[in-house]
Amino acid sequence: MTVRVMLISPAMNAALREARFDGDSPLDRSGRERARAAAGAVPVAGLALSGPSGRCRETAGALGLAAHTEPALAGWDLAGWAGRRLDEVAAAEPAAVAAWLGDPAAAPHGGESLRDLVARTGAWLDSLGGPDAPGASFLAVAEAASVRAAVVHGLRLPAEAFWRLDVAPLTLTELSGRSGRWNVALGRPLTAPPVG
């Protein structure tokens, strides 16, 4: 009962360029243009989904997807750090940032810990592989943190491995399998097929 889950990270925006804790800012002009250009490279799926952030929904629209919003694919809840740049937070709260980076159970910002993020994303991923969904395919535009969390959960990696995974904008990560046994194909750039 194999399920195919394809996760596309959203296009670039100003918050990402500035290393700002904020997934809800709109795409910038370049991000919109790149997403529109990549629309022809989006794989076909039985159900298209999007994380609830503006960046995910706008990317899904620019890719030509009629995506349903999936709350479980919300970005990492960093509460008190939302909207702030990483360098600002690190300068103001160095011990808190060190705890956040070093302890998967820490949530010094008042939001989700890394373990909570991986558990939330993993529960969603595993819910897709039930006996009622054999051969199903899902395509979701999801924040990079959610993509990384899905890979950590899917491969049963320690939560600390999250920090070793990079997810570039507009890349496709594919998980196939079922709850308890996932295979992963990482980070294929979405590029339009050549014309001609």
UniProtKB/TrEMBL annotation:
SUPFAM superfamilies per UniProt: Phosphoglycerate mutase-like (SSF53254)
Pfam families documented for this protein: His_Phos_1
Domain of life: Bacteria
InterPro entries linked: His_Pase_superF_clade-1, His_PPase_superfam
Name of this chain's protein: Histidine phosphatase family protein
